[in-house]
Amino acid sequence: MFVALLLSGCKREAARHKEVKPDGARKSAPEFTLKDVDGKPVNLADYKGKVVLLNFWATWCGPCKIEIPWFIDFEQKYKDRGFAVLGVAMDDEGLEIVKPYLEKSKINYRIVLGNDSVATMYGGIDSLPTTFVLDKDGKIASTHVGLVSKSDYENEIQQLLDHSQRSVHNGRDVIAAWRAAN
Amino acid sequence: MGGMLLPLGAQQIDYNSLRSVVRLTAPEKVSGTRNQTLTFDVVASMKPGYHVASNVAPAYPMKVKLLDNDAAQLQNVAYPTPKSHQLAGETLSVFDGDIRLKVTLKIAPNAPVGRTILTSKVSYQACDDRACLRPDSIDIKVPLDIRN
Lengths: 182, 148
Prior knowledge:
The structure holds two protein chains of two kinds.
Chain A: H1 2-16, E1 33-35, E2 41-43, E3 51-57, H2 62-78, E4 83-89, H3 95-105, E5 110-113, H4 116-121, E6 127-128, E7 130-134, E8 140-145, H5 150-181
Parallel strand pairs in A: 3-4, 4-5
Antiparallel strand pairs in A: 1-2, 3-7, 7-8
Chain B: E1 11-14, E2 22-26, E3 30-33, E4 37-46, E5 51-53, E6 63-66, E7 72-78, E8 83-87, E9 90-96, E10 98-107, E11 114-124, E12 126-127, E13 132-133, E14 136-147
Parallel strand pairs in B: 3-14
Antiparallel strand pairs in B: 1-2, 2-4, 4-10, 5-9, 5-12, 6-11, 7-10, 8-9, 11-14
């Protein structure tokens, strides 16, 4: 009885936060090159090796603006652990409207200017915000259409960062064991 | 001369691309004579929980446009008073629920007698409190019968 209660508690805890997709179920995020607000090209491929929160948004999207402070916080908190936020601004007016907005909002992560072609690559992007969380191999570990809670995002980022660190530690353990045996 | 407020017919046009969050209801037909000014209503119904940027919103305001034709010119569109909606620390100017757009046309002095199909484009951008849909538009066709 006690064990059953304990297990049901654990299940409730796990159910509160969505788990990221298992490794085998993740597809590669389509690669792209887009310009940032300074006109410099940004390749998604350059982010391999990092956990990435890829956020499609626009300055006219109210729910998008609710998430921005959370992403500023994540960038600050996790950048030294191999994490980055990459925002893709979907404003038709592009630089003219995005650059002034960035100056006002103190966004501390890279923003690139999106287009229809990238939107199509990512399934159409019918709603904003649409956010993909990518693992360090550039694969899509989770997808969110519309606003979700800050803790949901943070939980996913931590799962992927912890998994990355465990993989590194496991690798070190294997090497250590081989050396000991030889 | 003067406007004619016509009863709404059964013509309904559903949002035809992304999701059905806006539905338009327009008259089955309108009629008048050359040089006459007509007014008819288009009702835009927003799905509960959704709002659209009003006609005075800074980004993607709701707009009604009459596509080029030989029979009539758009004189005016009267929109209702927008509502204020608070989100993310900002005040948005929006429409929600059912709203009535009063469309005023002037029939051309040399408009062809008989039936012409007028096409209006209603453009808008809809959101709920979780997500915003891409800006979009719906075309509505209203037959205009012109008498001598």
